[in-house]
Specification:
GO molecular function (chains A, B): oxidoreductase activity; zinc ion binding
Largest interface: A-B, 39 and 39 residues
Number of domains of chain A: 2
Strand content of chain A: 15-25%
Largest sheet of chain A: 7 strands, mixed
CATH topology of the largest domain in chain A: Quinone Oxidoreductase, Chain A, domain 1
CATH architecture of the largest domain in chain A: Alpha-Beta Complex
InterPro entries (chains A, B): ADH-like_C, ADH-like_N, ADH_Zn_CS, ER, GroES-like_sf, NAD(P)-bd_dom_sf
Oligomer: homodimer
Order of helices and strands of chain A: EHEEEHEEHEHHEHEHEHEHEEHEHEHE
Cofactor (chains A, B): Zn(2+)
Distance between the termini of chain A: 17 Å
Shape of chain A: globular
Helix content of chain A: 25-40%
Number of helices of chain A: 12
Organism (chains A, B): Kribbella pratensis
Keywords (chains A, B): Metal-binding, Oxidoreductase, Zinc
Number of strands of chain A: 16
Chain lengths: ~325, ~325
């Protein structure tokens, strides 16, 4: 990405092992993230051309001398933060705050044919075997959007008997619906005004659709919950309006799980003091959930790959960005 | 309180039963709260004279026709929010957000000889018998400062094996130390630069004292915790500096329990997104904890009444406010 709106597919230097804990993988599929649209739309500054992409699944080609558990030939999935998975923070389940974390992206861009993954043993999880082609989109989804939606639902404490509302109908929001369903939520309210996304939300387990937004959206959630608000609300957008919509849709004592990358969001003391909500979120520690998510996909219990409604060859990545920017596509899968 | 700094003890109309769910109690003791200092110092506007006080323990004198479980002659304790204790929010443990809550204070001021308590059945908890005089300060403490410190420690998820830091050395902060100890915390770091308060903190179970504040205070907590931060931090002040000190002293995945009434506090998205902390707090649902706290006091397991380091007759209330304002007293008990 050279500038907002300017995505080009170019030949760059081949990735290579830089540290003995690295691995090189050949991507089976990659994709465009909702968060890639922030710089695309000019909301994040671009000072030099960016190698884009942080969602990946593929075959290990080469590993560094200190890599133990990951071997060439394995099909692996990793998250957008490389983590050692052994430090105290990782062991507590917050691998995206690992003391040795490295953000994938510039150093190991995934919108490519091959990429370098640091801390391979801690970061990558191998599938039970090389998957058939039809499983690849779902496995790729686990790399970020599913893992992020799942974390949102976990942070919001979605559970049996609870009413869960989801703010945001992008891939993460839709997969938060799927996650809440898997976590046993009784009632799942998807907030969306786009028909195709509403359909997918219902398909993933939503029981109600709310089209109102902002204060009206929060008021509608209260109406649907005896005036109390939802037990759990997942925020999957990242704007001031969506965050307040999430907080105001939550009952006292309820939980807001926020996973949209916050942009210029400011919470006043009163927003969190008198509301009695629990607030938790941030960059999802996808690594925590990968073994379970891979198992659910491998055994056919969930099909998160449905969020990919446009598939393009990697060299048409620019078309993919346009389709997502114009909301013609929920999420674009790129085949290298 | 007629104006900032202007507290007078005056004869007012006797409280009386206004609703069939009310009770009238004769106060055995009452006290001055740290939050009473906000209007005293001019931080909260005073548009008409305020009847002060929301912490109370005493003998029931009269109950309304619909009061079932509370009877005249009982010694009772209640919280600063009256609650029905039957609605869904109360049953979830958030009585201070009860759908029928009424704030004690103006309508039923506790810095008095007698007061009206609404929703008596839901609000008041009777002790096993009429306590001896030496137990009264501790039972009174349960009404707010102990219950609030306890909620802060619960919201911060203080538990065995954890390191808990407490920001604020007022009565609530000191009793959050006691609460963390009771909840089994392994290490408890009290942040205080006042010798008498440090002593009480150590007496209540603190294992470490940190005198630094703000960013330096947070940095010191990180130093003491292998660079990671505390698992649990209780915020018991309510200013921007103390709230940020609490957030920045917490490790990723850790919990901030904030119970200081927030004044002009603003959290930026980045303060809570990249830090991965859990944030929860607000007006403590003291009613949730009262039965357990009364039991701990009645059986002599805790002695929270130690926070009262000055006792005055009610008619010297103005002196009590001055002593707390000038930090000559941690907390002032008033005998009606």
């Amino acid at each position: 990405m050279h500038a907002p709106g300017d995505v080009r597919v170019e030949d760059v230097a081949e990735p290579r092992i830089l540290k003995p804990t690295d691995a090189i993988i050949r991507l089976s599929a990659t994709c465009i993230c909702g968060s890639d649209l922030w710089p695309y739309r000019g909301a994040d500054e671009i000072t030099e051309p960016l190698h884009m992409g942080h969602e990946y699944a593929g075959i290990v080609e080469e590993v560094g001398s200190e890599v133990d558990s990951i071997r060439p030939g394995q099909f692996v999935i990793g998250s957008f933060f490389a983590s050692d998975n052994t430090c105290e923070i990782c062991r507590a389940g917050y691998q995206s705050s690992c003391v040795h974390r490295e953000m994938l992206g510039t150093s190991g861009a995934a919108q490519a044919q091959r990429m370098r993954v640091p801390l391979a043993d801690g970061t990558l999880v191998a599938t039970p075997g090389v998957p058939s082609d039809d499983l690849v989109p779902s496995l790729l989804a686990a790399s970020d959007v599913l893992g992020t939606g799942w974390f949102g639902a976990v942070a919001a404490e979605a559970a049996p008997g609870k009413t869960v509302a989801v703010v945001g109908d992008g891939a993460v929001g839709l997969l938060a619906v799927l996650s809440a369903k898997q976590l046993g939520a009784e009632r799942i309210i998807a907030m969306s005004r786009h028909e195709s996304r509403q359909k997918l939300a219902l398909d993933f387990g939503a029981t109600d659709i709310v089209t109102e937004r902002g204060d009206a959206g929060a008021a509608r959630i209260k109406e649907l919950t005896d005036g109390l608000g939802a037990h759990s609300v997942v925020e999957a957008v990242g704007t001031q309006e969506s965050m307040m919509q999430a907080i105001n849709a939550t009952r006292p004592g309820g939980h807001v799980g926020f996973v949209g990358v916050l942009h210029d969001v400011v919470l006043r003391g009163d927003d969190i003091f008198m509301t009695h909500v629990h607030v938790h979120g941030g960059p999802a520690p996808v690594r925590r959930f990968l073994p379970e998510l891979i198992d659910l996909i491998w055994t056919g219990q969930i099909d998160p790959g449905k969020v990919f409604d446009l598939e393009l060859p990697l060299d048409q990545a620019a078309d993919g960005y346009r389709a997502m920017d114009e909301r013609r596509a929920i999420k674009v899968l790129l085949r290298p």
